[in-house]
Amino acid sequence: MDTAYVYDPIYLEHDLPSHPENARRLRRIMKTLEDEKMLPRLKHLEPRPATAEELERVHTPQHIARVQHQSQAGGGYLDPDTYVSPHSFDAALMAAGGLARAVEAALAGEIVNGFALVRPPGHHATAARAMGFCLFNNVAIAARAALAGGKVERVFIADFDVHHGNGTQDTFADDPAVFYFSSHQYPHYPGTGLWNETGQGAGRGTLLNAPLPSGVGDAGYAQVFAELVWPLAERFRPDLILVSAGYDAHWSDPLAMMNLSLTGYAQLGRELVRMAEQLCDGRILFTLEGGYQLDVLAYGVLNTFYAILGEKTVADPLGPSPRRERPVSALVARLRGVHSLD
User: Fold this and answer.
1) N or C: which end of the chain has fewer CB within 10 A?
2) pLDDT tens for residues 4-43?
3) What is the pTM of this model?
4) 2-338 CATH pick, 3.60.10.10, 3.40.5.10, 3.40.470.10, 3.40.800.20
5) Is 250 a catalytic residue?
């Protein structure tokens, strides 16, 4: 079956050139995929706008109306970090609907896996608030749509963006049908995602937060995946894996202080694809979140497509971090105890 990508030019219409999260990010990705002859190898899925029902499974009507009003009024800021331009509401509907469309295609057997190349990003958006460059929570909307469709009972969300996906965590903290894993720099924006945030009520035990100190790189991330993510995913037994893919934990990203290389990122992608193959018939869909060094962003996405296609090719023109990596063994040991893995 096919590997798909979701893309539409509407995603470029959400734009503020002076802002880190601008249309140049996606333009660079698409140019690199074209230059490397990747797009002809993939199935192009046309996105659709998210429905009101899909949005309201995650967001309040007041929040949706606020984003729409600000966009139709010509744009502005919803908080000090998060802008809206005249076409942002339409782009955000298509971003959420684009990933939901990919989920539909995977569950219907049209595709086996894919990557939603959408923006604005989503994982910081909470039920009632846009924040952290995010308007609607694309991955949360897609997970709720998958569960509502009745074809899956459990969804595993992996988030390797350098910032904690507080909006995604808030959505599913008490939901036993969704496991949320986040590896993120801590302390860093938005300040959430401590090791002891593991879920509440019926969802207790379905959050894995790996709050990593600055300087963690390829070896540390690999250890987190091997000793924590794999055993917890195997315990959860998901029917579908969704990935919030942010490439801002790279050592050269201007908004963070981590040490991942493009090679390390490629390995994370391969591990998640292998996890999907073993646990849920290969059903895995990535969606774009952060990443603000444009070469890293573009090659990171390219390498993720290589991983999704089952290939070992890695493009890493920047090479390994020039800085020494910090160890994570103490944190991993603590988290193994918290999640009863010892």
Assistant:
1) C
2) 999 999 999 999 999 999 999 999 999 999 999 999 999 9
3) 0.98
4) 3.40.800.20
5) no
